Amino acid sequence: MMWGCAVDTKTIRAWGLALALALASVGACKAKPQAEDADDVPKPAELATTNGEATATEEGDAVDRGELDDPRAAALTIARATSAATIAGRGEKSLGFRIDKISHLFALAATAKLPDWGAPGEGEAKLARDDDLDTAWRCEFGGAKPCVLGFALPEQAKVEVLRLYAAAGPRYRDYSGHPRVAKVRVHSEAGYVDASVADGANHGYVRFDAPIDTQFIAVEVLEVHGGKRSDGLVHLAEVEIFGTDGIPRQPIELDPSLAWASWETTSWSGAGDHTIRHVFINFASAGLIERRLLRATAVFGQAGDDYLLFERLHGTDCVEHRGSYLLYDKRNRMIYPLGDLGGAGANVYRHTNGRGFAVGWIGDGQFTVKGMVEEGGELKWKRPPKQAPADGEALLREWGFETKAQPRGVALEGAVPGCHRAALGELEPLVSAANLKDAAKQDPAAWIVCSVGANTLYATASCGAAAQAYQLSGDKLVGKHVGKHDDARGLRLRRVGDRLLVELSATGGDTSTLLWAEPDSLRELASNGGLFVRPPAACSACGDEWVNPAGPVYASDEEGDEGDDGGDEDDEDEDLEDDDSPSTAP
Questions:
Q1: Is the backbone of residue 560 left (phi > 0), alpha (psi -120 to 50) or beta?
Q2: What is the SS3 assignment for 552-586?
């Protein structure tokens, strides 16, 4: 039974208390870590946070992602277990495809705190509970006291799973330079359990063989995967506790219209057979305060949906694509691995009520669409029939899915509200304000004109030309971006109210710059980022569509056949030399 759809009265009462605490929350938001090198470029002031304070944007909106500590949890002492628990545990890269075995779990409310028997570390303990991989509690491993983070629960709970992210970032040199957690000891009222943690820039799990009845959890670092630097500074960026019978943690608020992918150099490495680099999905909240949530290449859904779908492309040879999908339940914070569904890079279809997704190809004699949807409080697989249906869209509707695929950003040719192709003479205000004489000689149809409140945005990124974007307030230029080279591969846009996300491609589409256009401001969100990861430049000179591997392909009806869960992406894929400069290899 899915939590949140049919629960007992105790859980309902607990959820009500958690919601009340959430509504009363006035905790401070956390700071991003300071740049470790003097040559690091700070982010725009509008995106920055400050230590211990809510951050005010130019509009004066304070952003607060904190959760109010329950006084019962705040008063609890985190004890050090002196004997092993009778319950065993193990580290896992994924919780597996048997969704029915884990769908009863939900994230538990907890107060992060530092036990007096552990090292003080650096930063606040609550940095490991702010849904942001760019903030972390840090600790020098190997000191007189162990590196340990405690988590006090408001009341007894049955804990079954921990989800950890224990690596530095976002830059690859920080990830590879610092040690990464290799083994932990989990302390509880039942004793301690030791478990290994797989190396990599992905979330990992500690799973117990049976529920542990406890009111606290402490995660102690026992061993590390060595980093390239001489320091022993480990990072605990995120710790989520899952179980039953306790007080649920408040749902997470994620709006996919304010999400984007980011990477450090280009999104792909290699030639012939391309491999994805470290790519993460970022979300913005009020005032564009951003957070790096998890490793993925795209996210689909709508703000009011219960579920989001994360796509994790791993590699491609331009015809066959490798990847997997994760279903994220915003209510209980669980991440369900779905394998490659109906094909990595294929069309994504949203459930009409936001209760799931399906992925696959529909064509002449082809129907690979496979998905997951919540029905009657339970998550259920939707698998293609053994023979392709005569009307694939009719089957999608029968399953409850939309028949129009989710957009991977709207290209110049698409219909973006408030945007249109420039007409003859429409570039004259731009030519005058920006002294852009070359624009007067260009085909105006290569430009798109959009309203941004009372402002006007002019943008172009024609294949093989330099990407450009200019924003005018009346006849005044308020912002611009011009690509350094004639290497664009198209323009993508996403409207968010009277504002726009503008993706200007470069390096043949292997990277792009993402801009945020709002009235009287055009700012850079990511120097290397986009709405979604595009196919490698070598796969298409000017196109952005993922190739449908031709021919009918059907998934088996057997349980557990979902394929790779995406936990094994190569973490040595950044092609960065020892001097931290990008490699010259393609």
A1: left
A2: CCCCCCCCCCCCCCCCCCCCCCCCECCCCCECCCC
Could you tell me the two tokens for 143?
């000191």
Which secondary-structure segment (H or E) carries 215? strand 204-225
Query: Among residues 322, 308, 316, which one has the least CA distance to residue 357?
Result: 308
Q: Give φ, ψ of 513 to 5 degrees.
A: -110, 135
Task: Determine contact, residues 367/385, Cβ cutoff 8 Å.
Answer: yes
Range of lowest pLDDT (219-223, 299-303, 425-429, 436-440) = 436-440
Q: What phi and psi, each to the nearest 5 degrees, are found at residue 543?
A: -95, 160
Instruction: Supply 216's token pair.
Output: 């606290």
pTM (two decimals): 0.85
Specify the amino acid at residue 305.
Answer: D
Q: What distance in Å separates the CA atoms of residue 97 and residue 338, rounded to the nearest whole number? A: 6
Question: From CA 551, how far away is CA 574, in angstroms rounded?
Answer: 34
Query: What is residue 398's three-state secondary structure?
Result: helix
Helices (H), 49-197: 71-74, 172-177
Q: What is the pLDDT of residues 499-544, one digit of tens each?
A: 999 999 999 999 999 999 999 999 999 999 999 999 999 998 788 8
Tell me if 29 sits within 8 A of 54, measured CB to CB.
Answer: yes
Residue 213 pLDDT level (bands cut at 50, 70, 90)? very high
The amino acid sitting at 566 is G
DSSP states of 326-393? EEEETTT--EEEEETTT-TT-EEEEBTTSSEEEEE-EETTEE--EEEEEETTEEEEE---SS--S-HH
Six token digits for residue 354: 């936001």
**What single letter denotes the amino acid at residue 177?**
G
Mean pLDDT of 47-60: 30
Burial category of 585 from C-beta neighbours within 10 Å (exposed 0-12, middle 13-18, buried 19 and up) = exposed
The predicted structure's pLDDT at residue 410? 65
Q: What is the 3-state secondary structure (H, E, C) of 467-479?
A: CEEEEEECCEEEE
